[in-house]
Amino acid sequence: MPDGTQTVVEMRGIVKRFPGVVANAGVDFELRRGEVHALLGENGAGKTTLMKILYGLCLPDAGEIRVHGRPVRIDGPRRAIALGIGMVHQHFMLIPPFTVAENIVLGLEPRRGPAFDLSRARAEVAAISERYGLQVDPDARIETISLGMQQRVEILKALYRQADVLILDEPTAVLTPQEVGELVEIIRRLAASGKSIVFITHKLREVMSVADRVTVLRRGERIGTLRPAETTLEELARMMVGREVALELTKEPATPDGEVLRLRDVSALNDRHLPALRRVSLSVRAGEILGIAGVEGNGQAELVEVIAGLRPITTGEIFLGDRRIDGLGPRRIHELGVAYVPEDRQRRGLILDFSLAENLILVEHRRRPFARGPALDRVAIHRHAERLIAEYDIRAAGTGSKAGALSGGNQQKVVVARALASRPRLLLVSQPTRGLDVGATEFVHRRILTERDRGAAVLLVSLELDELLALSDRIAVIYEGEIVGLFARDEVSEDELGLLMAGGRAKARR
Amino acid sequence: MLALKRIRTKPFWREIALIGLAISSALIIGGVFVVISGHDPLRAYLALIRGAFWGWYNFGETLVYTTPLILTGLSIALAYRCGLFNIGAEGQLIVAMVTSAWIGTWSGIPAGLHALLTLLGGMVAGGLWGAIPGLLKAKTGAHEVINTIMLNYLALYLSHYLVTKPLIAPPGMAPVTRTIARGAMLPQFLPPSRANLGLLIALLACLGVYLLLWRTTWGYEIRAVGLNQEAARYGGIKVARIIVMTMAISGGLAGLAGAVVIQGVQHKFFDLFAFPGYGFDGIAVALLGRNHPFGVIFGALLFGALSNGALQMQSAAGVPKEIIGVVQGTIILFVATEEAFRWFLRSRRRKHSVLKEGEKVGVSV
Predict the structure, then answer these.
(1) Does B36 touch chain A (CB under 8 A)?
(2) What's the pLDDT score for residue B312?
(3) Is the Cβ–Cβ distance between A213 and A37 less than 8 Å?
(4) Do the first three CATH levels of A7-241 and A246-337+424-510 match, i.e. the same topology?
(5) ipTM for the predicted complex
(6) Are A125 and A138 contacting, i.e. CB atoms less than 8 angstroms apart?
(7) Which residues of chain B make contact with A407, given a CB cutoff of 8 A?
């Protein structure tokens, strides 16, 4: 709870332009002592820019910043830290082979003479983690601890530098649901001890659960600042997107047809040659969405890979219709009508240095009309790209723009457009909305439903239960490589699924 | 969220300017060495330029050096597009030289056909020598840098053996092969210089590689593997096969360089006392040419001119030609550390206007 009205940071009329874009168009922002202030907006709304200005990573073109009432010019992170402002970036800035304690004190190392005083560093880290209730093992190496732990280390790093203002940039993007819960606890404790926290996010539910106040940005402008208690999810969504958004998907009941995909007793190993799938059997019918629920790392990635032909199986068989497809290569399987939206668009879905047009033909690049024999048909490739850019509303300068220059949402549209353009019989979708804002998420969800209604069989893997419950017609739970439950959507609750995902047993139902 | 990330914008003219800056800085540093060696740098460089370009003979000899460098540069550039670092162009060149020198001595083959066969023989030998590290990389993951370096030595010592034993020209006094048949030679077009048809072959190879990379499905797959192997695999591309194929083509191009040296210039294989160096200089040529098939032509011309001009400079101005080795080395150093230049240019601009920071920051919305 905010302990009153003491203003710590005040930003007035902040303007920041980049070539072709106004990131902040005169934004006001006020942060009070002891409050958790969410900064809500879609991708590209200017949230991160505003906070980068506060942290000294870029200078505003116009506007004024006051810290504790005094006007300041923050021309670098050093200045920001001196003013008691710390920032935890979306991508952590830690040194993997160093220990937790070494990372925290880095740059401000306690010394004994000229030597680094490791024992004092450890003691100081232990004291500070004790004080704020952030348990870490000071001797663990960063490369061996989870992302959630790494985030704690980042927070401790800021606290060690005596930050009173803590900026967290999309802090939940990399966390599991349990870790999110722990983070919320930590944030509350920090606020209670008088720290002020800026929480950058595009997730509405997080705003509701953690923030004392929320400032909504849209296209570089401040739309409003309000208290979550006095508003609704729908209103926040409208402020953020600028139009009515359907938070609940409306969908027709499924009218499933014949079986398209069938797995019988399929096992496979992961990259470390340990069992990842154990005798998995399941089937997906035309016109239905089968959701796969599970905590990350329980075999769902491998499951999709074996179907797509990217990973060999050790037992069992996989059928597409009547045809056995295990043992065929990914291109052959694609040609038989399987399209794939992989979970990591930057690493697996796209070639970031390829143009949009080149990315949009990947997998299909040897087929007509894109290739005649070995020769690429550049006109056909260009036309194909133009058509998909228009159809999927991909925001890009042109078909020749590099995929890496697009925003995350637009990158995902490219991957989805490519998969759907082939009108697949079976659509494999893995984490389709990770890191996307509300508008883009809604778009992707609609397209997946459209595919289902067209008669495609859809296998959907997601870590977000909300997404699975909204889209799936049936849900299977995977735990340690086994299917531990299979339900019709209407027969199962979130709690039941959560229990199974954590390893509790239940009887499978059809 | 407004994702701010540095997008490397590389406008064509900036690129040219940076390379020009590297070259002129290297020449200045080389000039310092000329002064230290007790000569007049202006006279030395004038002699260098005269030696490289003045008159048809000198220009022709520059082309003699340039021709194999285009091909080895192209070989390395192509491999690099696939994410492979082919240090082995040197060895691929050597096996091709020996092979061509051998095939060239066959008798009873019609003139033009013999030249073609000799050329192909060198190419295939280089291609096979390049495919070995490709295969090792694809099958076992063994790094091509290590294996190509080792294969360079294998090629060098194998050529020692071949030229001193089975292929030695009678009566066997000197370690050298017989002169190849007239019908296997590439015609020279600027006599008395030894500039020859190999230049045209090299230029056609550049065009060929350009078309391969950007107009065919194979080139698409090569570039995809080079940029993101994981995504290429997800895109149904057989990564291992592409790696072997690219290394074979890359080796074939280096092999072509070896064949051209034999057929156009030497007409026989002389025992090598050390690596001939075309393969290693090819790395610098590829670097200068930004790994683009047309860029390597200019890189090769620069290095060819420096090598040839250095000889003339030594005889005309008495400046040791090793100075030019310093210049070449410095160019490589500067081009390789161009980031330092960029940084220098940036920090200068920052001093002028602090607020223009956003210029170098691309915005993806």
Answers:
(1) no
(2) 83
(3) yes
(4) yes
(5) 0.82
(6) yes
(7) 3, 364-365
